[in-house]
Amino acid sequence: MKSEKKYRFVPKTYGRWFTPISWQGWLMTLVIVALLMLSSRSNNLLNDQGPVTVELVRFLFDALFLVFGFSRLAEKYTDGELKWRRWKKDS
Q1: Could you tell me the residue ranges of all domains in the chain?
Q2: pLDDT in tens, 5-60
Q3: CA distance 75 to 71
Q4: Are the beta carbons of 40 and 59 closer than 8 angstroms?
Q5: CA distance 36 to 49
Q6: How far apart are CA 51 and CA 38, in angstroms?
Q7: DSSP string covering 15-55, please?
Q8: pLDDT at 33
Q9: CB–CB of 75/19 below 8 Å?
Protein backbone atom coordinates (compact mmCIF):
# COMPACT_ATOMS: atom_id res chain seq x y z
CA MET A 1 0.00 0.00 0.00
CA LYS A 2 1.46 3.32 -1.08
CA SER A 3 1.24 6.13 1.45
CA GLU A 4 -0.14 9.42 0.23
CA LYS A 5 2.38 12.26 0.39
CA LYS A 6 1.21 15.20 2.47
CA TYR A 7 2.04 18.52 0.85
CA ARG A 8 2.93 21.47 3.03
CA PHE A 9 3.64 24.05 0.32
CA VAL A 10 2.36 25.05 -3.12
CA PRO A 11 4.33 26.90 -5.81
CA LYS A 12 3.73 30.65 -5.93
CA THR A 13 1.68 32.05 -8.78
CA TYR A 14 4.53 34.35 -9.86
CA GLY A 15 8.22 33.76 -9.25
CA ARG A 16 9.98 30.58 -8.20
CA TRP A 17 9.33 30.11 -4.47
CA PHE A 18 6.54 28.44 -2.53
CA THR A 19 3.79 29.29 -0.02
CA PRO A 20 2.82 27.28 3.08
CA ILE A 21 -0.64 25.69 2.92
CA SER A 22 -0.75 23.58 6.09
CA TRP A 23 0.09 24.08 9.72
CA GLN A 24 3.22 21.96 9.21
CA GLY A 25 4.39 24.30 6.45
CA TRP A 26 3.75 27.34 8.62
CA LEU A 27 5.60 25.65 11.50
CA MET A 28 8.59 24.95 9.25
CA THR A 29 8.56 28.60 8.15
CA LEU A 30 8.37 29.89 11.72
CA VAL A 31 11.23 27.61 12.78
CA ILE A 32 13.49 28.95 10.02
CA VAL A 33 12.63 32.54 10.99
CA ALA A 34 13.37 31.76 14.65
CA LEU A 35 16.71 30.18 13.71
CA LEU A 36 17.65 33.24 11.65
CA MET A 37 16.75 35.51 14.57
CA LEU A 38 18.76 33.33 16.95
CA SER A 39 21.73 33.51 14.59
CA SER A 40 21.50 37.30 14.39
CA ARG A 41 21.32 37.48 18.19
CA SER A 42 24.28 35.12 18.70
CA ASN A 43 26.34 37.07 16.16
CA ASN A 44 25.62 40.39 17.97
CA LEU A 45 23.81 42.01 15.04
CA LEU A 46 21.19 43.54 17.34
CA ASN A 47 23.48 45.37 19.78
CA ASP A 48 23.90 49.14 19.99
CA GLN A 49 27.40 49.28 18.49
CA GLY A 50 26.48 47.39 15.34
CA PRO A 51 28.04 44.23 13.95
CA VAL A 52 31.75 43.62 13.52
CA THR A 53 32.73 42.46 10.04
CA VAL A 54 33.56 38.92 11.24
CA GLU A 55 30.18 38.62 12.95
CA LEU A 56 28.35 39.91 9.88
CA VAL A 57 30.12 37.40 7.63
CA ARG A 58 29.33 34.61 10.10
CA PHE A 59 25.66 35.61 10.11
CA LEU A 60 25.53 35.73 6.31
CA PHE A 61 27.06 32.25 6.16
CA ASP A 62 24.48 31.00 8.71
CA ALA A 63 21.63 32.62 6.77
CA LEU A 64 22.81 31.16 3.45
CA PHE A 65 23.11 27.69 4.99
CA LEU A 66 19.70 27.86 6.73
CA VAL A 67 17.78 29.25 3.76
CA PHE A 68 19.37 26.79 1.33
CA GLY A 69 18.59 23.86 3.64
CA PHE A 70 15.04 25.07 4.22
CA SER A 71 14.38 25.51 0.50
CA ARG A 72 15.72 22.02 -0.30
CA LEU A 73 13.56 20.47 2.45
CA ALA A 74 10.46 22.46 1.51
CA GLU A 75 10.90 21.54 -2.15
CA LYS A 76 10.32 17.89 -1.21
CA TYR A 77 6.96 18.82 0.35
CA THR A 78 5.76 21.11 -2.44
CA ASP A 79 2.74 20.17 -4.54
CA GLY A 80 4.04 20.78 -8.04
CA GLU A 81 7.24 21.78 -9.75
CA LEU A 82 9.25 24.79 -8.67
CA LYS A 83 9.93 26.77 -11.81
CA TRP A 84 9.99 30.42 -12.77
CA ARG A 85 6.47 31.70 -13.44
CA ARG A 86 5.89 35.05 -15.13
CA TRP A 87 2.87 37.21 -15.43
CA LYS A 88 1.33 36.74 -18.87
CA LYS A 89 -0.97 39.21 -20.58
CA ASP A 90 -4.23 37.86 -21.93
CA SER A 91 -4.37 38.81 -25.60
Answers
A1: 29-81
A2: 788 888 877 777 888 888 998 999 999 999 999 999 888 887 777 668 888 899 99
A3: 6
A4: yes
A5: 20
A6: 15
A7: BS-EEE-SHHHHHHHHHHHHHHHHHHHHTTTTSTT---HHH
A8: 96
A9: no
